[in-house]
């Protein structure tokens, strides 16, 4: 719910240094992280613990394509939760030209052992 004219008003955005509306950076971040879910955390995530080092080095424009890559940069067993661990992920988002438009580190709590299967 960011009503910033730079994101919503094409006439206003045309008067800025960007010349057209930008995608809201929080939408860019959530899409970047969301693109990793199916491959990395679906069915294993317990909680997001936090984000750090978030940056938007270049704008993402409406109509651009967002490509995402994620690297596991650290992992360790949880000190207080048996069967769970803390994994740190580095997310990078690029547009269709390969320009980096967003980066973020995310700390997650994940299951390290499968959940018991429900009795049938």
TrEMBL record:
Region (Disordered): 77-98
SUPFAM superfamilies the record matches: Thioesterase/thiol ester dehydrase-isomerase
Entry's family note: Belongs to the enoyl-CoA hydratase/isomerase family.
Database matches in Pfam families: MaoC_dehydratas (PF01575)
Classification via CDD domains: FkbR2 (cd03451)
Coiled coil: none
Organism superkingdom: Bacteria
MaoC-like domain: residues covered: 2-92
This protein's name: MaoC protein
